[in-house]
Design brief:
Blueprint lengths: L4 H5 L2 E4 L5 H12 L3 E6 L6 H10 L5 E5 L5 H15 L4 E4 L14 H29 L2 E6 L12 H21 L4 E8 L5 H8 L10 H16 L5 H10 L8 E4 L3 H10 L2 H14 L2
Parallel strand pairs: 1-2, 1-4, 2-3, 4-5, 5-6, 6-7
Length: 288
């Protein structure tokens, strides 16, 4: 039965990582669709841009700010409990919080590796686990895990990020099957490169030296990343997609989105890996 507008307005969405990028845009988009949006972020001092865009869209009253650090168990538990206590439901969870750590494997410290996995993967798992009892009690819900093209194809120079997103992909495959009997949908959104702060921050985090054995390769990766970021499309494509997915009765598991991503997926499924390696190496070397 088709939902009435009033029913849609009462639905509760929890989104992590809403201070910028896809999380911010998705919060505004879903609020505009009538959802009550709990916009979680680690540092509420970074809320200004979200509030500015919410005001411009006329949806300020639909946005409810909340502190949540996805790497802190106490913070997650407190936030989810507060949402459930205030609204009595969590209908949609958008696991968006994350960052991209750049660098060649040998030159990335184990502390940095663990930090990447703590935020992008273990944080996502823990937020999901905190929300699941609420959704099971409702016998319905929708969990959207924001993955990446890097969860489908590992590029040189971003091994920690790729590892974290590959983990999200495998986790989501298993989780979807576990939750089907409870009426809870699990969806992967797999963006390619978009104009968001994540890649700039990832490139800025790369540290190396003139004596690094990876210096030439790293310079190629950085040139390619900057060129790709300059030509990247509007990130609102991702929030628009999520806006459609939350209303689907029977969504698929995976939704790749972005320039060239379908060609990449198609190529990986058909071409020998050595052919792909040569193509990537040639592409990187050709960027001036």
């Amino acid at each position: 039965m088709k939902q009435t507008q009033e029913e849609v307005r009462d639905r509760i969405v929890l989104i992590t990582g809403t201070s910028s990028g896809f999380g911010l845009l998705t919060a505004v988009k879903l609020a505009a669709q009538g959802y009550q949006v709990v916009a979680a972020m680690r540092d509420l001092q970074r809320r200004d841009e979200l509030l500015r865009q919410a005001e411009a869209a006329g949806v300020t009253k639909k946005i409810h700010l909340m502190t949540m650090d996805v790497t802190c168990s106490d913070s997650i538990e407190a936030a989810v409990s507060a949402v459930n206590e205030r609204f009595g439901a969590i209908d949609v969870l958008v696991n968006n919080a994350g960052f991209a750590l750049g660098g060649f494997t040998e030159e990335v410290s184990m502390e940095e590796w663990r930090g990447q996995m703590d935020t992008n993967f273990f944080g996502l798992v823990e937020v999901t686990k905190a929300v699941l009892p609420v959704m099971r009690g409702q016998r319905e819900g929708c969990i959207i895990n924001v993955s990446s093209v890097s969860g489908l194809f590992g590029f040189p120079g971003y091994a920690p990020y790729a590892a974290s997103k590959f983990a999200v992909e495998g986790f989501s495959e298993s989780l979807r099957q576990e939750l089907l009997p409870f009426g809870i949908k699990v969806i992967l959104v797999e963006p390619g490169s978009f104009r968001t702060p994540i890649w700039g921050k990832g490139m800025d985090s790369i540290r190396t030296s003139d004596t690094s054995p990876y210096k030439k390769q790293l310079e190629q990766v950085l040139r390619y990343s900057r060129r790709t970021a300059e030509a990247a499309p509007d990130p609102s494509q991702v929030s628009e997609l999520i806006g459609r997915l939350v209303q689907k009765r029977s969504p698929k598991l995976r939704y790749p989105v972005g320039k060239g991503i379908n060609s990449l997926i198609f190529g990986k499924s058909l071409l020998p890996w050595k052919t792909l390696e040569r193509f990537i190496a040639k592409t990187l070397a050709g960027i001036k």
